[in-house]
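Hi X.,

You mentioned you wanted examples for the new student's onboarding notes, showing what a folding record looks like when two proteins sit in one file. Here is a clean example. The first protein comes first, with its sequence line followed by its structure tokens.
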Amino acid sequence: MNFKKVFVAGLTASTLMLGGLVPTISSPQKVEASVATPYPKSMPVEYEWKSIEEYGQNVEKGAFKIDLGNRTGTLVLKLYTTDKYNEGQANTLHANAQRYRDIGAFLTDKNSGLDRTYKGLVAFNRYAKYPTLPTLKYKSGFTNSGTNAKGERFITLGVHIDNLVNDGIYYLNMPNGMNKGTWEVKGYFYDNVNVEERVFNEIDRYFPLLGKVWWDGIELKVGQIGRLTVLKDTPLYKLDGDKKTYSRTLKAGEFYRIYAFKPGKLSVGGGYYVDRDSKVEYQTPSKAKLNLVQMRAE
């Protein structure tokens, strides 16, 4: 077992090197995301088909549908290509999103989502170098590309909706071929605020779907469910079934991330556990923060 001192925000903490086990610190110095911006909420996105008349023929049309109800605020969409989508075309779209901030996608209302009349739309190229933005009911939009925690590429679209349009039902119209089966779309919404430009230009702070999630100044990790504070020296042990194998003693004042628990036991990762008793204090983050971590991992 190796000890070393680490320095975070001007403070020190003992670090126990046990296969990725890293303790946290007690006195945070960072501003938390909850102070900087409200949390986004997951919004369901479904794909809707409709038979319409086009050029004298009945044809099937489809679009991704988002129902915001009576909400106003900032809508954010994340688009992932699937293995059914043409790789070369997907590469071009990601490159355009990154370089020109434009992929030719439009947000429309429920009256124009499937009949292609394009009443009340926004083009997601508001912050492009040479934006050509048709502004009707929606004022602006943005597009950008990124990579999630799993290494998957996606395109991000977003728009601030400041007035209620047609009962809050919107459709995402996309270029030819970008339909159900070739794209996966996830929706998120910031209630009652306009964080559109901040989300785009200050990603780490204002877009926790991409940036880190902070809990008392320390990054909350994917899979983490809580935090352990050692109040009195307590044994750390490896658990194999019901058999405990002593490893060492955790010292009072140390802090550790918790990833799982068993009855009367807390896991600090790497197969190591401590007893959940009066020698330790266990804290859990809010559900909102846990949801943010999960969103970021998507």
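Then the second protein repeats the pattern, sequence line and then tokens:
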Amino acid sequence: MGANQGCLLKKISFEAFENAELNSLTWYDFLPGDDVYVERCNTSMTAAGLADEILSVRDINDIRKIDFLAAKILNQCDTIADYRHWPELSSRLSKIMSLNLTAEGSRSLRMHAQRLVYYLQTIIDSGEFNSNAEYVISEIVLGVNKPWDYLRTIDGEWLINSDKKNLLYRSHDGKEICWDVGLPTQMDILPDGKISIGSLYTNGAVIVHERKFERVEHSYPIVLLFEHDTELYFLDNQCELWRVSPRCMVANSIRPQVHFSRYIDGIVYVLDNSDYGHISIFDMNTFNTSRLDVSPVQVCNDLVIVGQNSYLIDKQQGSIFKFDLDWNFIMKILSFGRKEGSLLDPVSIREINGRLFVVSWLTAKLTEVRLF
């Protein structure tokens, strides 16, 4: 019997757990330690036995075994605490998730694998409670559902949420207003103080200034719009780089795809979540493209450069990773999960007044961290 079965728990059937709607807004709602129990998990194998079987095959694609193990972990099955290969299994499943983010990949395998990665990472980091508490200045829960990005300007605080309809929020002097600008996924500040609103899903982009909205039309979604040497450029979701005016393509095939992108000091950073352990950069001055190994980061969602260091956040591991400017790994802080001082699918990192601000997508937390 699982450790939680005698408690007052939300009980769900294995069939409901296995066949839940593949909706990212609800699919990852549970984590080990939550008050939930999966009934009718009809396998006699232990969690460790299932993990060994999954690890024994070259290509992990047995979704049912993945779900049996996920259910066993939620139910706090015996053998979880003593098993020593959770990091290896989590890493392999993370690669499977990443590889299946391509157009040819399996969405079902990707999401089932990703759910188990979150469960495994919870186990892996369970002993790291408050291990980096000295770095955390504050945590607040943002008042939106699964936020994509966060900005702070002289005009207030800006947020993008995820829902049936994404909205752009601005809070200033205790007042909040919101706008429907399609399905935005990131924000970037232009040199003149205007904010560009990029998207993976909505064609074109939006520039915001003093509550006025200017559309930049394009036949594909524009992920990143930025200024380089007084000219406006954009990177679209086909990973093609364009000048805005006169309109012309500057570069293509930087990566097969892009999920997030940032422009920092003449460099376009291209974050393709299907490129496990790597990010790509495009130098606007030389037009050279480079692919960088950023391990131990697995899937980089965002980055920021402060002084002589780069700080990357990992979708999978819930940590902030520090590198030097030659991309040598230095250290990491924070761990994965809901607990205080932890991150859960961190999606955005900013440097504001000498501090780092990280948004966790699944918990809608904004975590303020001192530089390290």
